[in-house]
């Protein structure tokens, strides 16, 4: 996805997770890219 | 697994440039304290002031409004509908829902009603859409705040916005913009005081606060911001920050501490009321009234 931890993070089942977290089938994954602009 | 520096519970947030790991509750507390300290340090406003928060429906403005409300400030919102299709519809919907939840008033201005929507203006303007949009937002924020009797306008500009703008202005040595880049723009000459209480909070910190506070914010980007130079500058700064945590904060704070006082001495911008609308301008006619004139000439305005 070419994102950096500087401005993006991952939420699994409503919890913010670290980079070494393993996701399993059925998990709800949300990737939040905080960079906005204009 | 990192532990919260305050309570030793499992940390959900790690802030490299502060070398701080925090659990959800202590992160929310840290964020609000940082906002409060910024307000006090830069003498932005007090609890007696009526604050108008410029709300876009995004993470920064909603996080700011949420934090100000929790800190006990009298803060209402102003949403400017840009008329950008589904993006504006969704943003307004989220801003209204949020205001309702907070129990505060959200004032709404529709560009279509007062000038024209951004897609139409983009057709007649050579400038990038973001430049036209920023110009109009600043104008109607100020006009709206005065008409509604607010003494302060608070915007959700964060540390990434400020450091990227600073980098852009330094790269082109735009001294006029550098002089005016400040967490506080004082009132006077027809302008309401403007403040940026999130100027020491990163974009990621703001997004984390919104998420952990269960704020329903717009995640979609404005379709016109694709390829905006500010995004490129933010990504470049992030690369430096990743290798050297604290760079953005140092870049911005040291500019405010060491460079801005020197630039301020040179500031000699004289403003007068626009001969058409009465809003402050450096020329005879302000940029928004000139835009309206071009719109009429183009035949694309609603009244033409």
Describe the protein:
The complex is a heterodimer of chains A (38) and B (304). Chain A is mainly beta and 38 residues long. Chain A has strands at 8-12, 15-17, 29-33. The relative contact order of chain A is 0.38. Chain A is 0% helix and 34% strand. Chain A is elongated, with a radius of gyration of 11 Å. Chain A has no helices and 3 strands. Chain B is α/β, with parallel strands linked by helices. Chain B is 50% helix and 12% strand. Chain B has 12 helices and 10 strands. Chain B has a 6-stranded mixed β-sheet, sandwiched between helices. In chain B, strands 1-2 form a two-stranded antiparallel ribbon. In chain B, helix 1 packs across helix 2 (59-70), helix 1 crosses helix 9 (203-212) and helix 2 (59-70) crosses helix 9 (203-212). The longest helix of chain B has 20 residues, at 129-148. Chain B is globular. Classes of the chains: A mainly beta (38), B alpha/beta (304). At the A-B interface, strand 1 of A face helix 6, helix 9 and helix 10 of B.
Number of helices of chain B: 12
**Structure class of chain B:** alpha/beta
**Assembly status:** heterodimer
List segments of chain A where confidence is low: pLDDT < 50 over at least 5 consecutive residues.
Answer: none
Share in helix of chain B: 40-55%
Summarize model confidence as the mean pLDDT of chain B.
94
Major sheet details of chain B: 6 strands, mixed
Q: Taking strands numbered 1, 2, ... along the chain, how are they ordered across the largest sheet of chain A?
A: 2-1-3
Overall outline of chain B: globular
Estimate what percentage of residues of chain A fall within beta strands.
25-35%
Q: What's the total helix number of chain A? A: 0
Q: Distance between termini of chain A?
A: 21 Å
Radius of gyration of chain B: 20 Å
3D shape of chain A: elongated
What's the total number of strands of chain B? 10
Radius of gyration of chain A: 11 Å
Determine the strand fraction of chain B and express it as a percent band. Answer: 5-15%
The chain pair with the largest interface is: A-B, 16 and 35 residues
């Amino acid at each position: 996805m070419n994102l950096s931890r500087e401005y993006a993070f991952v939420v699994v089942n409503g919890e913010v997770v670290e980079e070494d977290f393993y996701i399993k089938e059925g998990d709800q994954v949300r990737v939040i890219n905080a960079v906005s602009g204009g | 697994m990192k532990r919260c520096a305050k309570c030793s519970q499992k940390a959900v947030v790690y802030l490299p440039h502060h070398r701080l790991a925090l659990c959800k509750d202590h992160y929310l507390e840290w964020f609000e304290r940082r906002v409060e300290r910024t307000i006090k340090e830069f003498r932005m406003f007090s609890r007696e002031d009526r604050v108008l928060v410029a709300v876009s429906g995004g993470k920064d403005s909603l996080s700011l409004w949420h934090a100000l409300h929790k800190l006990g400030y009298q803060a209402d919102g102003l949403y400017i509908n840009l008329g950008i299709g589904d993006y504006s519809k969704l943003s307004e919907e989220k801003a209204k829902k949020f205001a309702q939840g907070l129990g505060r008033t959200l004032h709404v201005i529709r560009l279509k009603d007062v000038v024209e929507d951004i897609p139409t203006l983009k057709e007649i303007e050579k400038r990038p859409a973001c430049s036209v949009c920023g110009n109009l937002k600043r104008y109607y924020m100020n006009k709206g705040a005065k008409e509604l009797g607010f003494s302060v306008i608070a915007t959700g500009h964060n540390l990434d916005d400020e450091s990227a703008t600073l980098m852009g202005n330094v790269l082109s040595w735009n001294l006029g913009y550098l002089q005016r880049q400040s967490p506080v723009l004082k009132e006077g000459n027809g302008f309401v005081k403007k403040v940026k209480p999130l100027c020491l909070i990163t974009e990621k910190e703001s997004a984390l606060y919104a998420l952990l506070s269960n704020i329903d914010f717009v995640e979609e980007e404005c379709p016109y911001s694709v390829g905006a130079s500010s995004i490129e500058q933010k990504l470049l700064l992030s690369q430096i920050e990743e290798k050297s945590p604290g760079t953005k904060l140092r870049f911005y704070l040291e500019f405010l501490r060491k460079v801005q006082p020197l630039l301020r001495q040179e500031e000699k911008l004289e403003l007068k009321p626009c001969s058409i609308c009465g809003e402050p301008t450096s020329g005879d006619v302000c940029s928004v009234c000139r835009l309206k004139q071009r719109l009429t000439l183009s035949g694309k305005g609603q009244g033409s």
